[in-house]
Amino acid sequence: VSTQSTGNHIKFNKMLPLIRNTNKNYRYLNQNQFQFQFQQLNLIYKNKYQNNRSFSSQKINSNPTNTLSFLDSKVAYGSKTTHELWRAFIVLKLCSFQTLVKNSGKLLKLSTSIFGKKITNFILKQTFFGHFCAGETEAEIAITVQQLKSIGIGSILDYAAESDVPQENARDRTGIISAKTFDYLSEEDCEYNTNIFLDCIQKVGKHPDSFAAIKITALGKPELLERISVVLIAIRKLFIEKFSGRSDHSINKQDFKQGLLHIGIILPDEDFDALFNQFDKNKDNKIDYIEWTKTIRIEDMISKKIFAKSKNNLSSITHGGALPLLDEIDSKLFENLVNRLNTIALAAAKAKVRLMIDAEQTYLQPAIDNFVFDLQRQYNRDFPAIFNTYQCYLKYSQQHLNNDIERAKRDGFWFAGKLVRGAYMIQERKRAQERNEPSPICETIEDTHNNYNQSIQTLINHFINFGKTNFLLATHNQNSICLATELMNKNNISAQSDGIYFGQLLGMADHLSNTLGKNNYKVFKYVPYGPIELTIPYLLRRAQENSSLTGNSTIERQMIWEELKRRKFFF
Fold first, then answer.
1. How far apart are CA 503 and CA 515, in angstroms?
2. Does the pTM of the predicted model rise above 0.85?
């Protein structure tokens, strides 16, 4: 065992009993899992054996000026009742039994068949649902929101219900743990989901600094999003392969003319100049990747002979055979989806609610990014109403983030984004392997952490230098949180500054959320709600996430136990 990363002064023989107590299967941990557990339990060791010294998990300079301690069990769990603590301890302990978690769906069906739905739902409400969800009714939700508010934590309401559809109609959910998925049944279902999201916006709009979260796959057909993504990728590839050679390279008039020749387009000089000028938004006699993707819009890629947005022979590119097109059926579905998104976005902007649009699989994401960009250009002029989501386990996420920051600067609207690590890793790798394509996922967890932390640096720099920036760091990773708070302190950014937010899931990482709230940082909990029987898929995923040996549940259970002992277990 190497203790170099945690300090030579830590004695392994004192750590071993903690590892035994917190993980009975410690003998079978692989190297990465053992290293993570050893580092996490090192924090407990310092707290327990070294007079509760404060600990800063990551030094970003030789003399850090900001040190947060996330190991004070009273701060983390002092606001909870003893009943809530016992429930949290039992739920997280049950989640640690991987065999139980793996078969949880079958056990729920067995319970329903033996005891009936009413008793099964009652048990769920007293345990997993009560711990991870706010409630079923508006009154129950209001109690949770008020409890969080009393300790300095805001709420992000998230309707967690999901339809239970026949397997032949269900989307592939293999390898999806953290994310919510929707199954498309009909346009009527999309209208129903629209009303749910509008209701959510109305609820949270009553509170300042309020957030809501939606998924675009709840509002439109996933296959449509995939087809739109294919077209958008083709538009990007056309610029790189036929015009510029690379995405970060600008082209001049001669390059543009040569590119048109590559795809069989020859225009009279007057038409050529007009077309070039349509792309050249900056009027610097150059066209870059951002100008190219801004000029050719998905609305131009409909196969019907109406080119309302196509001027100056743009249709010679969009309909000349070099790019795929959407058919008229897709055009109608596209129009419906755009109308739903605009309805929701307008409601959020009017209510001053920050609307976070979740990221999804890479084969859907180009379409989602396209919709978000259009919404931001329209609704983020005076207020950061629309947030995009950046998945830092993707290799290209840094370039994606930088491109969107540049788009916001050029168009003069608020940049708004949510930073996550990602939820579809296994599914994405499996799909890439099946298609014999390079995986879009970072090779190692360390690469993902580095990507996330570099993105924090990028966002804070943009916040300082440009203004008009809002972002939420959705993470349960203590190192990333410490990095962000230290960077804020180093750059004299107040913890209460509008624009920098932190987020964690209800029922998880309370030691992070509550410590941030106590120190006046703007921190939020994702607050799921909905009927018990429809939130079961969400609850199963939370159980899976907390069964992971590389999660935070071990340290959380240890801290809950410390708080229970402090209260003499019952008071």
1. 12
2. no
